[in-house]
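Field: COMPLEX_INPUT
Field: COMPONENT_COUNT = two
Field: RESIDUE_TOTAL = 486
Field: MODE = joint
Values follow.
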Amino acid sequence: MAGNAIELKNVSRSFGDFALKGVNLTLPQGCILGLVGENGAGKSTTIRLIMNTLRRDFGSISVLGQDNTSPAFQSLKEDIGVVLDEAYFPEVLNIKQVERVMVNTYRRWDSETFAAYVKRFDLPWEKEFKDFSRGMKMKLAIAVALSHQPKLLILDEATSGLDPIVRDEILDIFADFTRDETHSILISSHILSDLEKICDYVAFLHKGKLLFCEEKDALLEEYGIFVGTTDQADSLRPEALLGRQASGYGGVRALVRRSEMPAGFPVEHASIEDIILFLVKGEAKA
Amino acid sequence: MKGLLLKDLYVLTRQMRVFLLFIVVFSVIPGSNMTVFAVVYAAMMPYTALAYDERSHWEQMAGMMPYSTRQIVVSKYILGWIFTVCAAVVAAVAGVIETRFGLNGSSPLIAGLSLCVGIIMMDITLPPMFRLGVEKGRMFFIILMVLAACSSATLVSGIVESSATSTLVPLMTLALPVGAIVLTAISIPLSVKCYEKHLS
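Field: COMPLEX_OUTPUT
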């Protein structure tokens, strides 16, 4: 039976004005986990903690079966491809030079794969990195992350700054990557439609706390959108009504738990975006 | 670690061409002061590399790669050693040639002692650079560099121009290499600790 690619148990880290509190998160091997949250919710902090570039205060983190504070984790990074929210290559390097650096960094660097991605993404070999657009920078970072035969991809806002066509193509590449059941992806993004498209699991961070980490299909099955009158919404039990908003003309649009809804109340499909937005903002009474 | 060094060499040779040319020019100008100046200039290369790393946020990227903190730190020391050794060798060779042509060329001894001074300066200034970052560590670095460059240039030239039988000559020729080795052995683990603190 496949294990977990990433496992966080009760992980906490506090800064002066922000704290990540008691995060429990699991990414099963062969799956894609989407990490969602507003700016400053703790997504990048979580990723830095997973990669052990930030010391945790409490809890334990294992990555590909290895405690990330163990000495062996250093060499395990060969198996992890990371794309950060910005591509942080020195600005005077061109792709040829980036490749030479990576050849001497990763033992399993595959120059042919890299060249294929550079061609596929239409990136210039000779142009200096400082002259790249944001989209080009992210494409280069993705090409690098995919070219050393990783088993785990950790992507922090990797699709932001890309146009919808390229984004779609890259999401397909990520989906292809997990066809190998030993491959897994942790992806954080603001673009919830992207996550809904490719993720198996969704984790939602809000102000440093993990509100949920569940299977996407289970979430979509559990939650629904109810559109009706204020009186109808008021009649619902608190277990059924998770968030509500005025929808104009005295109506109410509400996030509900399907299993708790009385018969005769129509419930529509809720997207991941609906669920997240209602959980964060839906407390306001209509 | 080869990847890290390669990255720094690409960046420095692209960004610091004029600076590198200055080092060569200072190395070949007759006079021991210039030799010390050239080697100390070369010893500044790790700080420049660190500054470019900070500017491009490379440290975050390197943290995600299969490099240990120690490798990242040691690569900067090696970078400094490469440039200071090159400057010292150029100065020594130029000094020998200049002396043959009757000029006041720098001796290999001066070049060797200058190399030790450059390494000692790196040993003293790199830990605070790793702890505070280049921006905050800059003032500390500038003050120390100016003081050390002036005093060491005067000291080294004073030693050589004084009597060969002076007790200072054997003392310095022994003390500077030993000092460089001992301080390097202390400085590297200290820098690793400082860098870990800086990152966390």
